[in-house]
Write a sequence for this structure.
């Protein structure tokens, strides 16, 4: 398996199952895709999610919704039903994930810091370890790294108008990352830090 970052704008994710697992899966996708959840009953947590809900038996909707979906999540409390949903999704060439079993993609634990994100997976072997690593990274990845991401994005945009070679732009940006003074200034003032970064880039470009 390979990690990818996907743009799910205007894509449809169908989640079969409205319990704890279905809630986690729906919450993962709610900000990025059109999410539909099918279940006889729904966890109270669904009340705060921006997803569409269909109340009823999964079997009554599975053929239609798998056809209309881009991603299928089987998260019911019936393992045989989950397997049937995944088999159908596979036959139709869909991306699918089974809550407690196989699928052709996995949902990672994610640390999202705005200007960057880190996805963690043990390839299904140890969800507890994935959660542990996510919690540890949440604590250890500080705000300075996010500010540095913002600074590099701004500087990269400026360099595009003055440095035509992409490889050279990357070299200049790496020189900023290696500059301890820029990192120190991020603690005190973003403006002073980016002025320092511009100075470092100019010096390296001479």
């Amino acid at each position: 398996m390979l990690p990818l970052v996907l743009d799910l704008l205007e894509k449809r994710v169908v989640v079969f199952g409205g319990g704890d697992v279905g809630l986690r899966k729906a919450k993962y996708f709610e900000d990025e895709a059109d999410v539909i959840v099918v279940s006889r009953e729904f966890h109270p947590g669904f009340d705060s999610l921006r997803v569409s809900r269909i109340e009823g038996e999964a079997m009554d909707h599975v053929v239609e919704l798998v056809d209309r979906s881009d991603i299928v999540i089987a998260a019911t409390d019936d393992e045989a039903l989950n397997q049937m949903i995944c088999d159908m999704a596979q036959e139709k060439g869909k991306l699918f994930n089974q809550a407690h079993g196989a699928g052709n993609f996995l949902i990672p634990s994610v640390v999202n810091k705005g200007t960057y994100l880190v996805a963690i997976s043990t390839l299904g072997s140890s969800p507890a370890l994935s959660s542990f690593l996510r919690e540890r990274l949440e604590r250890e990845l500080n705000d300075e790294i996010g500010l540095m991401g913002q600074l590099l994005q701004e500087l990269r945009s400026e360099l595009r108008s003055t440095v035509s070679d992409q490889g050279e732009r990357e070299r200049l940006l790496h020189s900023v990352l290696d500059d301890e003074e820029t990192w120190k200034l991020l603690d005190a003032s973003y403006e002073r830090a980016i002025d320092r970064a511009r100075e470092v880039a100019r010096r390296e470009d001479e």
Remarks:
- Helices lie at 20-29, 62-68, 79-91, 127-140, 143-160, 166-177, 180-188, 190-205.
- The mean pLDDT is 93.
